[in-house]
Amino acid sequence: MNCAIIGRYLGNLLLLEAAFLVPPAAISASLGEEAARRGILLTVGILVVLGLLLRRAGQRSGSTFYAKEGFVLVALAWVVMSFLGSLPFYFSGEIPSLVDCFFETVSGFTTTGASILTDVEAMSKGLLFWRSFTHWLGGMGMLVFLLAVAPGQKGQGFTLHLMRAESPGPSVGKLVPKMRQTAKILYLLYVGLTIICVLFLLAGGMPLFDSLCTAFGTAGTGGFGIKNDSMASYSIYLQGVCTVFMALFGVNFSVYYLLFRNWRAALKDEEVRLYFAIMLSVSAVIACNIYPQMGSVGMSIHEATFHTSSIMTTTGFAISNFDLWPELSRALLLVLMIAGACAGSTGGGVKTIRLLLIFKNMKAGFRKLLHPNSVETVKLNGRPVSRSVLEGINTYMSAYCLIAIASLLVVSLDNFSLVTNLSAVLSCFNNIGPGLDIVGPIHNYSTYSDLSKIVLSLDMLLGRLEIFPMLILLRPATYRRQA
Questions:
Q1: Per-residue pLDDT, 343
Q2: Secondary structure percentages of the chain, helix, strand, coil, to 5
């Protein structure tokens, strides 16, 4: 394995992270938040020194860059950047536990939104901005950003292997012939939609700082709020804006590009149609189910659509304590945690496309049982799906179930209720944030032990990177010559 080239690109990412910490430092400096400013600037110094050292060490790395290097670089980058990105919270003293700092920052970068903070509003504005900004950076992916802005990188297959390792979904395709150009298009769409979201929030009277932080959480489908009640104290208009934009950021970004090329084909995309069908049908069922509690048709629809959009897109914003809803509604939200958004979006979860292909493959299997000599082909949008993609989905789901079970057993050592532990694991693994019971929308994860927080942090990373890059990073055989 070419460790030098991994170090060089990791160094570039650390320098990039240092640059992204400058705006939070400027905010803290302008507001006289001295402890936060010092903590951020000290972290910037560490990032710059480490970044330059890694770049220098990898100057003569050659150009060998294969799939293994891609997976290891992506997984290692997310772990290292999360740890170093947590240092401003620790150095400032605003989060005294290093494990808590790591948990909070991993939750930010992976767009999970699970928090250990008991009083969000007590945090300095500079660190609140950084906390929300990590959502936006992690939403599309830091390495995808590097591909979009950096000049031509050395290494045949560099762009393809990084996109394949970091992009969510069972397969990665190109929008245009060059993968680097595809990354640029994706980020332009991401930035454009984020700006439009900010403008709609400003139009509703939300302050600029709040608008930026809320848009970061909405665009990255992360859900870190800057108020203790998440989104509850904002107007119905502002909540409605977030409902719509959470749903939009849960759509595969390739579909937005396709809208400009062939809008009819974009509207016929099977994954997107199933995504909105699930969201609307679940919203309708929940609205009917919670109507006796709400006492108003309008508020029932508003609450149901907001939280369905929030949970299915794995954003995690809340406008009320949905843990008090009837059991059917709570169960539906738990199922939505697993389902997740579309592949190629900023949302987490298993992804709608995997559910669709599992269902199609199951139908083909049934037909094969009835007609053993028939040739069954699974198709998506009229095109055959390769056997390797279907096998990859089966492998992913097997690993998903095993990791979820193992995580549940470990966090159960804290002796909380099954509902608490199960929803905590599903919420972190699927990058959602709030769960049920003790980790519900009006609570947080602060009561868990350090061991459970580390396990849940790993779950967030495994979920965001779709399991395999993290498993390859932790696999001893990866570092042997014959591996």
A1: 87
A2: 70, 0, 30
Buried b (16+ CB within 10 A) or exposed e, 362-400: eebeeeeeeeeeeeeebeeeeeebeeebbebbeebeeeb
Q: Is residue 314 part of an annotated ligand binding site?
A: yes
Count CB-CB contacts under 10 A for residue 19: 13
Rounded distance, CA 404 to CA 459, Å?
Answer: 8
pLDDT digits (tens, 9 = 90+) for 406-439: 999 999 999 999 999 999 999 999 999 999 999 9
What integer is the mean pLDDT of 317-330?
95
Tell me the C-alpha distance between 237 and 243, whole Å: 10
Which residues on neighbouring strands pair with residue 379, listed in sequence order? 384
**444 labelled ligand-binding:** no
Over 50: is that where the pLDDT of 483 sits? no
pTM > 0.70: yes or no: yes
Q: What is the pLDDT of residue 183?
A: 77
Q: 111-142 b/e with 16+ CB inside 10 Å = b?
A: bbbbbbbeebeebbbbbbbbbbbbbbbbbbbb
pLDDT-based confidence at 242, cuts 50/70/90? very high
User: Is 431 annotated in some ligand binding site?
Assistant: yes
Residues 6+ apart with CB under 8 A from 326: 289, 290, 293
The DSSP result for 358-412, as a single string, is HHHHHHHHHHHHH-TT-----EETTEEPPHHHHHHHHHHHHHHHHHHHHHHHHHG
Return the closest-CA partner of residue 459 out of 319, 348, 367: 348
Distance of CA 374 to CAs 324, 403, 435, Å? 51, 36, 45
Q: Is the separation of the CB atoms in 37 and 23 below 8 Å?
A: no
pLDDT at residue number 479: 74
Lowest mean pLDDT among 149-163, 213-227, 353-367: 149-163
Is 315 annotated to bind ligand? yes
Return d(Cα 284, Cα 271) in angstroms, integer: 20
Cβ contacts of 460 within 8 Å, gap of 6 or more: 106, 107, 110, 112, 114, 428, 429, 431
Is 194 annotated to bind a ligand? Reply is no
In 3D space, the residue among 396, 366, 363, 398 whose CA is nearest the CA of residue 380 turns out to be 363
Both tokens of 246, joined, read: 């959470």
| Cα 48 to chain centroid, rounded | 26
